[in-house]
Amino acid sequence: MAKKRTEHIIHDDEIEIGPFQLQLMFRESWESDIQLFTHSFFCDCNAEKRELADYKSYINNLNDVILKGRCSVCNTIAARYIETGERSGIEKIADKIRKLNQR
Ligand SMILES: [Zn+2]
Prior knowledge:
By secondary structure, the chain is of the alpha+beta class. It has helices at about 20-25, 30-35, 90-100; strands at about 15, 50-60, 65-70, 75-80.
């Protein structure tokens, strides 16, 4: 059996964003969006009530959001990729955040 990763890989184009910036990325639907995406992610354990816990949020150069955390049930690392880049008006918001957070 393949050895499991214990830490997330952060790609070069990924910039960490804060909780408020995450809300900005989802705009008015942020509450239901975050609820949905932290409860729908792939995990080997397939536990019904799993939740993405202790996650950090990132945006990449496609203006998509990636949440990286761990599964609340089996505790292995887990991530959720969200295609926010296709939402209208997102580019402006993402560009602003990227400028602010640039390393
Ligand atoms: Zn799990």
